[in-house]
Amino acid sequence: MHEFFVFKRCSRPALDRVFTRFVPLLLGALLSGCSSLGYYGQLAEGQWQLLRARQPVQQVIADPATPPHLREHLRVAQKARAFASAQLKLPDNGSYRVYAALGRPYVVWNVFATPELSLQPVTHCFPIAGCVAYRGYYQQGAARGAAALMREQGLDVYVGGVEAYSTLGWFDDPILSSMLGWGEERLATVIFHELAHQRFYVQDDTEFNESFASFVEQEGTRQWRASRGLPPVEEDGAAQREQFIRLVLASRERLQAMYSGPLNDAGKRAAKQAEFERLRREYRQVRDRDWAGDRRFDGWMYGPLNNAKLLPFGLYDQWVPAFSQLFSEVGGDWPRFYQRVEALGQLPVAQRKAELQRLMGKARSHRTYAN
Questions:
Q1: Whole-number Å distance between alpha carbons of 131 and 134
Q2: Could you report the per-residue pLDDT of 201-210, keeping only the tens digit for each?
């Protein structure tokens, strides 16, 4: 998900008119701060360039100059796209029926930040998307520059590249060249995930939105494979990734307890560094004992560690079992499932989380009974 979508949804021929009308409104709204003006300006320019780069997928497939591997990727993606609307009841629009070549490995770079002695993210609020725990930049240099300024303010900062995002249906989102490094299966699952964001989105609740989209992605992938006579996917490295995430989440919980404890700032700084060393030590033990020395996560673990680097963990799957339970309760009926999800999303935050917790409890009890 990306944070800046205030344009009117329209067909491509109308885009010039939209930007002509939009830019003066944008400038008027942001004259209160040059930094805000510059930031929103690069978002508008980056999105505009992305829209101009789009081509209909069928046109790319039919072009004799299209490399065979790209043509095959796009053919499979179009089958998955049709399945998403016909079987998963996801939006039937122009998204992922167009293609854009970027010429760079990521479409945006997100900058996460926290205080030095807290895991509370520095949040940023935007039209449509609401408040999120990052800022996105279309140029890596701009992201690094923003990160440097935040570090000068004493914040912990982390910059991460993003291969795809959703405009929540305000534009026809393209299949991006940055997505094509994945296998065909992964490309299909991302289409399911991002279309789920278009199907329903709650402002200011990242855990809800990402868990919902992750469930649709997982169940959609299961049904997509079954429709082609394929068994459930045994994703390479899935067990290692889950174990790695548990290690990071456990470390984050210990840090949270320490930051809210009685230590003074100097003591907290020392405990913070000791915790990161503990995380690395526990990672080495798991890697060498359980993974036969598989080093796929070494780059992340042995790079600089700080609070901000831990922020993305847990956001995408916290409530997935709750949505799975909800799907089971409606007998796997997608329209009824979406109705229940929308009802959940309309509840006040406290009630929504309480209902999700209730569903989580039922999911756990069903798993225990089944075992």
A1: 9
A2: 998 888 899 9
